[in-house]
Design goal:
Length: about 400
């Protein structure tokens, strides 16, 4: 095996607040359809959230779902969809050679909150605490639930990388294929964040939870009136293979993963540092052996927080400020922040550009914040840009973790 072996995407499975398959997701992004809605959450009443509507029982039994987690259910659904899209039947391949690498922002918060709420109703008598709690809350749970459901015997684990986790899962899959550890990688990210009142409460305490009279307009990255994050759930898992293996079985190739970068700010728990963000993007470009001018689409991480968007915009200007053919967009304006799934979902939403030459917009930009102005920011309406050869996907997270992935038209 070679550390420079070409790795390709042959399947994509996803669920998002505005679509439960790649075609629907893409169609709604091009049409400007938001998936943000109002939901009721414990102790906080009504909040804005991005909630997925996939069929949990399509790929697992009621008993397995009761024993498992929402994140695991999302991961199972996305894995089945990705394998079907790739044309892979696990009954006909070596299951010991399939690895499962899923990025997560956090795991166990939802289950712990639920158990405490149960025993609260019984004067905190712990005999009512579920014996399923431990397997539900171990950090490898979502990936482990996939292996149990599909009978996969290869390595599995989750990658805790805050909101850079979706990209991190994808990167891990690429690396393990190049090391020869597996022949097929299920890689991406998942999140059940909307099930935790604590996540909403924490953002509210930071004055970073989005407010608006219309939930579909609450997520407003780069807009002057932006006022915080819309918390969302979701998942996106890719089937990754070595190019030679994919060609040998006659697979349809969606895209090639050609570059990636990860680094740390080491400066602040929540505020990103533009220089390190720029360095992360440049690292991904260097690994892909391309120049910034070769990139056609830059998908921004921007979460609609006041400082975060400004810092990322500054980094994008550093790297792509002199690139007249690079167009910038944002997916969180449609679906909110899907946390551990964000990077993987946002990349998926742009893959269709390889076929149609259209850049989906950033919606809800009523008045662009001058501090967030970047060249060729696609706002409110999709834009035809012609041939797209390279897409760079940004995904950054708390405690200063940064990631960028570059994919290429095959």
């Amino acid at each position: 095996m070679s550390l420079t072996e070409r790795i390709v995407i042959t399947g994509v499975g996803l669920t998002s607040p505005n679509g439960d398959d790649l075609a629907t997701f893409r169609r709604n992004l091009l049409a400007g359809v938001s998936g943000v809605t109002v939901m009721e959450t414990r102790f906080m009443g009504e909040v804005f959230a991005g909630v997925c509507n996939f069929d949990e029982l399509k790929c697992q039994t009621k008993k397995a779902r009761r024993r498992g987690t929402r994140a695991g259910s999302i991961a199972i659904y996305c894995s089945h969809e990705a394998l079907a899209h790739a044309g892979i039947d696990v009954e006909n391949v070596d299951r010991t050679r399939i690895g499962t690498y899923l990025g997560i922002t956090e795991h166990g918060t939802v289950e712990t909150e639920n158990e405490i709420d149960v025993i609260r109703q019984y004067d905190y008598d712990t005999k009512f605490w579920s014996h399923h709690h431990n397997p539900r809350t171990v950090a490898n749970n979502p990936a482990g639930e996939v292996t149990l459901n599909l009978g996969l015997n290869g390595p599995h684990y989750t990658i805790g990388a805050a909101c850079a986790a979706g990209n991190a899962g994808l990167i891990q899959g690429v690396q393990m294929l190049r090391l020869g550890e597996v022949d097929i990688a299920l890689a991406g990210g998942v999140s059940e964040a909307v099930r935790s009142f604590g996540i909403f409460a924490s953002f509210a305490a930071e004055h970073a939870l989005a407010q608006h009279e219309d939930p579909t307009k609450a997520s407003r990255p780069f807009d002057k009136a932006r006022n915080g994050i819309v918390v969302s759930e979701g998942g996106c898992i890719y089937v990754l293979e070595r190019l030679a293996d994919a060609k040998k079985r006659g697979a349809t190739i969606v895209a090639e993963v050609v570059g990636y970068g990860m680094n740390s700010d080491a400066s602040d728990p929540v505020v990103p540092e533009p220089g390190r963000l720029a360095a992360c993007m440049r690292s991904a470009l260097e690994r892909a052996s391309i120049e910034p001018s070769d990139v056609r689409i830059v998908n921004a991480h921007a979460t609609a927080t006041e400082l975060g968007d400004v810092q990322e915009a500054a980094a994008i200007r550093q790297v792509f400020g002199d690139c007249p053919a690079a167009f910038v967009n944002n997916t969180k304006s449609f679906i909110g922040h899907a946390m551990g799934a964000a990077g993987a979902l946002e990349l998926a939403g742009n893959l269709g550009s390889f076929d149609d030459g259209i850049v989906h917009p950033t919606i809800n930009v009523t008045e662009l914040d001058p501090a967030c102005a970047v060249r060729n920011l696609v706002m409110n309406e999709a834009r035809e840009v012609g041939k797209v050869d390279y897409i760079l996907n940004n995904s950054f997270g708390m405690l200063g973790i940064n990631s960028a992935v570059v994919v290429k038209r095959y």
